[in-house]
Amino acid sequence: MDLVAACRAFVAVAEYGSFTTGAAAARIPQPVASRRVAALEEHFGARLLERTSRSVTLTTFGRDMLPSARRLVELAETMEHDAVQAQRRPFRLAVPAVCASPRLVRLVVEGRRSGLHLDPHPAGPGERAELSRTLEARAAIVAVTPDSGAWRVPLGLASTADPQVPAIYLETLRAGRADNHQQRRRVWIQPEDDVPHVRDRVTRLRDALGLQPAQVTVATSLVAAAASVIDSSDLLLCAEDQADELGLHWRPIGEVKLVRGYDISATLGEDRRQLRTQLHAAIGRCLGAVNDDGGQA
């Protein structure tokens, strides 16, 4: 027996003094209301209602039980309301600041279809990790080494001019004797890639090739880095989809393979599992990630 449903029928019939009217108020057929009240009476072993051809009245036992039945029904309704509100409560997710708005919109739509009302919060790598640690975000897409991540985003170099080559080699940035006094081309690293497994590999390559320290520079923002590149012959370290959005020509780096790695940080294992499974493809598209075969995620 469904105790809540039986109590709901009992309360409605008792309040209206009629099985027909009470059943209508409870939005159930009259025979169903009769069966549920009868089942409740059998469960308790005593009659709750006195039935006549014209009316229904409470028995002494029914009068004593009505307040408890009403509280149970009200509690069940409150719980159902709370469950709906909990499912609709925004799921704050810290995401990379490089995720374009159209991609975030599609991610939110996919999340809703999976029962998650995502509230994306764009932030840099360090801030995302902190938001997850302090529980200011329910979960965060954090930067990790490529081999330990759930998503991988290949990086390369982008410029205003089409390089007309399949790959760009940093050794071509070395200045010759004839142009010692000219402005040397630089590689700009945006904040999203200011993480050890990306930044340190670029700077080590810079030193190995004999480039000047200033030829690899970490920018204060993606906007600042992109503006410097568009206004010069400099290069931007970025993902291919970022280059497309900025109208730049992108090529992989010839000397080294650089990849952003991403994974989910969350306090609750269920949140991490849901994001990594149900929304794996949607998050991958938002990040511009690739599959193991090199295709778009």
From TrEMBL:
GO CC list = protein-DNA complex
Q: Which InterPro entries match?
A: LysR_HTH_N, WH-like_DNA-bd_sf, WH_DNA-bd_sf
Classify the source by domain of life.
Bacteria
Outline the extent of the HTH lysR-type domain: 1-59
The UniProt entry, under Gene3D superfamilies, shows: Winged helix-like DNA-binding domain superfamily/Winged helix DNA-binding domain
A GO term for molecular function: DNA binding
Going by the UniProt record, its keywords in alphabetical order are: DNA-binding, Transcription, Transcription regulation
Recorded family membership: Belongs to the LysR transcriptional regulatory family.
The protein depicted here goes by the name: DNA-binding transcriptional LysR family regulator
Which species is listed as the source?
Answer: Micromonospora pisi
